Amino acid sequence: MAATTAPVGATARIAPKKQTLEDAYSPPANFLEIDLSDPQTHGLAKKRYTDYEVRMKTNLPVFKLKESSVRRRYSEFEWLRGELERDSKIVVPPLPGKALKRQLPFRSDDGIFEDEFIEERRIALEQFINKVAGHPLAQNEKCLHMFLQEPILDKNYVPGKVRAT
Fold first, then answer.
1. pLDDT beneath 70: ranges in the chain
2. Residues 6+ apart with CB under 8 A from 58
3. For residue 11, which of 1, 35, 101, 135 sits 20 to 30 Å off, Cα-Cα?
4. What is the C-alpha end-to-end distance of the chain, expressed in Å?
5. Shortest CA distance to 90 belongs to which of 36, 144, 35?
6. Whole-model pTM above 0.90?
7. Whether the Cβ atoms of residue 55 and residue 68 lie closer than 8 Å to each other
8. If we measure between CA atoms, which residue out of 54, 53, 62, 41 comes closest to residue 139?
């Protein structure tokens, strides 16, 4: 039986490239940054709600806009979660709770409209949208693109995938 020998070069390890300061501090190859800010409470009595500015910056080719800013309220985050659960193959993380106890009448405080609660919810919603949008399969869903980039959500849209242009 003849022994076969592979050429040494075919199995040699590739030498790692030294990282330069320019490489270390340059923008990443692909990035998607989403933050929630500027909570605003609107309306009176039972028509009262809080919305947040959702700002996105990206260089991912699948998004038609590289920067966008829209206002979203909690119920629209619920809509997005429901759409993703129904139409995509990903496990969608939970939203922060509805805070039903804070909505009871005859409270001595502002309930869900207290600054502390609004800030806690803002942080939790920001974590939610970053987890969802960071998932490669979710990035192809029309509902996510609408949520991040369209000023008004068209809840009668036709679900489907987005193609990179």
1. 1-10, 26-28, 99-111, 163-165
2. 31, 32, 33, 66, 67
3. 1
4. 56
5. 144
6. no
7. yes
8. 62
Rounded CA-CA distance 49/46 in Å is 8
- Residue 117: the pLDDT is 86
Angle between helices 115-133 and 74-87 (to 10 degrees): 20
Residue 63 buriedness (CB in 10 A; 0-12 / 13-18 / 19+): buried
Cα–Cα distance measured from residue 94 to residue 75, given in angstroms and rounded to the nearest whole number: 14
What ranges in 20-73 are assigned the alpha helix state H?
21-25
- DSSP 3-state of 70: strand
Distance CA 135, CA 85 (A): 13
pLDDT of 85-111, one tens digit each? 988 888 999 998 876 555 545 545 566
DSSP state of 49: E
Q: Across the chain, what does the average pLDDT equal? A: 83
Collapse the DSSP code of 35 into the 3-class scheme (helix H, G, I; strand E, B; otherwise coil) and give the result: strand
